[in-house]
């Protein structure tokens, strides 16, 4: 069946039953090649019906009904109706309608102190959205670009209803996959705008190691290059040559960082071009025919292929040969170029990423967002935010909502970039969000008091930040699996609640999000109550049984509730049946598959999780892949955990992996059977009655499958006693001792829960005090 219907001036192409391309051109010419936005229109041919009623063309798929009068596009002459409506009056789009999407993302958070306006995304509650490709440039066969010569309308109608993930999967098919990131990018990044001496910087990395705080990426801001220049050269904002006063031996500097397991990126502001002081100025000027004897400045021309070839060849590749792993493109110099319609930021991202792949490596660049389609050039740098609670409060929503534009890998200045005041609580909460965000990068401005090293903060904040930064590296097996899921399945790491819950509460809780396939996160973004010494956040728990990842407290879902947490925790929820792999050796988890792996299994429902690993070489685009499928079958009498390995032959270091298995919320089993054999020899297991956890240590056998079966007298989820936690919360509170005792007496009374709740309500205590108690009583 033909996919498109044509007239003298129009072309309508049915790509899928829910994705339609609509083109109109006064010349009758259309674009068939790839553009800045669209990289493939090769979809499987859908079934649809076409009929003509007079001048009206009607196209009907199983999901959409297109009406078109075959004239110039107009609201009266072109409309598309979803077969399934999502409003009182159905869901119909008319050409020219402004679609109220659920938001996308923004170019930058520079100077933001709280919320900023978002561009449109691909999803809406009305069930449809428009992607306009009318103005984007065309990609030529040699990989360069040229302006679109056809002046017309070229838009894509997405009519996926509330099947949001299906919409994104087809968007990625149309506009290109998100590339697979190198493993090391998922660890902690250290960054600061500060004039470090090279030995000082290496010593700082050693201090992190001494404190047992893992760092994966060393970011060196613009002071790596010469910034104070003779007057004749002008500003030192742009630079491509090492500053010999700070980095007298750059090769040794880079080598020492690599020896410590670190990858390195340097900051670039290329807009001022290349000046006579640069070490590579003369060969580059000769290649471009510039008067080098008079040190004529070489202008920055991102749309000139000859200049860009020289830019990479003479300026960047020699630095990469010294050991620079990738580039931080800190572009802040406008949106116009020599080619009308070409944003220089997009062009830089496109060319930098393409160049980074030139040797068959996994590509990587680090830059600001340049519109829909930017997901093909990760990682995103969100810019210089103000250090404030308002900025922190916006970032979870901003990051999760970016998935609506297909953009997954945002990196924020964790802790805020500038201004504000020192606040241990704010800094700690920001680090906690950073650990449960796509890229965890500490950063700050050059103020000498602004260092984000955890030991610069108070004792409690220091300890908590360090613990969370270690947790980030322990999570790398889980994050790396999500990396594959994002690239190959089109499933973003961070997903708003409404991707999986079609209810009003899911849309209202914008700061709450799914983090990978197994976790639900609601960061705390507001300060604690000074009386309760607890911070509060409002959370929606979908249907099911949920565990707090940190405390293992159990909550019933299908409700909204306020959760209260001390500084050392945020609500991270794992649904019953969740299976989460954690690296035991967090210090090298960004470089290697772990030899020792902790597997957390949350009892109470069936669960499945497939962990994906590979050769851990960031230098190879294609690698051997290893998949381990974990299946938990929850049964009232016997629950079974099965591990099954698939894919390539596992290397020796993975054949004898040691598993520490933690089954949480389970009763004390009367028997533990491994691979159908009732035994204790060969495994070590222990039941912690207080925590309701079974802990097993087992060395993986040299085979593709093993099975652990637990015989249970009571298969129900074993909940922890809330009274001890309530006592701890009351003990921390800055309130009357007598009031504490009265509250605890009511909590421990033998009366029914409803009666105890009534008696607590009668005390007329502060809402946050009662809320902190009610949360635990209602679990």
Automatic annotation (TrEMBL):
Swiss-Prot/TrEMBL GO biological process terms: carbohydrate metabolic process
Pfam families on file: Glyco_hydro_31_2nd, Glyco_hydro_31_3rd
UniProt domain Glycosyl hydrolase family 31 C-terminal: residue ranges: 490-580
Protein name per UniProt: Alpha-xylosidase
GO molecular function, one term: hydrolase activity, hydrolyzing O-glycosyl compounds
PANTHER family: HYDROLASE, PUTATIVE (AFU_ORTHOLOGUE AFUA_1G03140)-RELATED, MALTASE-GLUCOAMYLASE
Family to which the UniProt record says this protein belongs: Belongs to the glycosyl hydrolase 31 family.
Domain Glycoside hydrolase family 31 TIM barrel intervals: 178-482
Keywords: Glycosidase, Hydrolase
Gene3D superfamilies the record matches: Glycosidases, Golgi alpha-mannosidase II
InterPro entries: GH, Glyco_hydro_31_C, Glyco_hydro_31_TIM, Glyco_hydro_b, Glycosyl_Hydrolase_31
